[in-house]
């Protein structure tokens, strides 16, 4: 079995050394070269044709986003961004995901052995996922929200629940960007670290017709509002009076994740039952598959993204295997089907 060939691009010599040691400690991958800036990296890509690129988000000589944009236009390849855990770093990272990066990882905290071992495992997992990812051009929305003639009732009687992982930031954008005002409340779990989900929600809020925000404990679910689980808390809903409220749960990881899609979907199954639509989008692993089945068993309409439009066909595939999906749809068709099931379209 051939090993995954990785090119690491980072202006820090120490970081290049750390990443090289981590990657080379894995039996199924190797660093074939490193580069201190995008200009050198460009030549190495041409010479060595790596399988995966790790790329620092803030680079000298050429803006990292400009470099990524050129890569995706001229030589599309799997890219894992290495990001600083700052507001600026999270904004750049989210833009990189829009441009086509498969995933990102925050820079390691050097010197703490247990954390370094855990980081090595996480980095290796992301490189393995990236090596198998479907790299495609950015999908634009096909119709502005004004063309969707959605008729909503006066009461919040339905809930839309969405789960995603690798590739999910763009998939969620495509689903939400086409949602009209008045749509039933939307609750979302996207696998993402703390500090990034706030920036993700703010970014979506600027481009969507509906309102998007990071969920807070006790938020009331309202029409035209999408809540995104914070990166370090599980998001659940509960029936309160005639409507629903969001609650945050600081419990242990579920399916290795916090937030977990299964936690969200199970709460929607319990409290919304048949008055819900569940959507499982692109991502590695199985988180959300059993929860989607719970929703379906309670009468909800459930949707899994199809393989052709997924960056990683893991979570949706597991749901399909469990017969948890009422529909298996291309990403571009999911918003219309959601609206068909929760109102009139």
UniProtKB/TrEMBL annotation:
Its EC number is 3.1.1.61, 3.5.1.44. It comes from Thorsellia kenyensis. Pfam families: CheB_methylest (PF01339), Response_reg (PF00072). PROSITE patterns: CHEB, RESPONSE_REGULATORY. The modification 4-aspartylphosphate is found at residue 56. Residues 5-122 form the Response regulatory domain. The keyword Cytoplasm applies. It is an enzyme of class 3 (hydrolase). It is found in: Cytoplasm. Keywords: Chemotaxis, Cytoplasm, Hydrolase, Phosphoprotein. Involved in chemotaxis. Part of a chemotaxis signal transduction system that modulates chemotaxis in response to various stimuli. Catalyzes the demethylation of specific methylglutamate residues introduced into the chemoreceptors (methyl-accepting chemotaxis proteins or MCP) by CheR. Also mediates the irreversible deamidation of specific glutamine residues to glutamic acid. Contains a C-terminal catalytic domain, and an N-terminal region which modulates catalytic activity. The gene is cheB. Belongs to the CheB family. This is Protein-glutamate methylesterase/protein-glutamine glutaminase. Phosphorylated by CheA. Phosphorylation of the N-terminal regulatory domain activates the methylesterase activity. One of its GO terms (molecular function) is protein-glutamate methylesterase activity. The keyword rRNA-binding does not apply. The active site is at 165, 191, 287.
